[in-house]
Amino acid sequence: MKAMRQSARRAVFNLRTKNKMKGAVKAVRMTVAENATTAQEDLKKAFKALDKAAKKGVIHKNTADRKKSRLAKAVAKMK
What does the alpha-carbon distance between residue 58 and residue 19 come to, in Å, rounded to a whole number? Predict the structure, then answer.
């Protein structure tokens, strides 16, 4: 019973972290598509969200690094 409660609690935390990460990544993609000047700030927020998700084990470290690399490349291409 305790394991079920822990699992449910962790699922909520993981979902929250994942949603924050996805939102940050989406914000960067949108600013790149619109050629907005806020892309660099959004990129910093996305990096932070990706690093936190990787640290908490929600996503693998290599997955976070790959996403960060692709986002940085997209922002650099925009300039």
Answer: 11
pLDDT digits (tens, 9 = 90+) for 32-60: 999 888 999 999 999 999 999 999 999 99
Q: Which residues contact 59 (CB under 8 A, 6 or more apart)?
A: 18, 21, 50, 53
pTM of this structure: 0.89
Q: Which two tokens stand for residue 14?
A: 């993981």
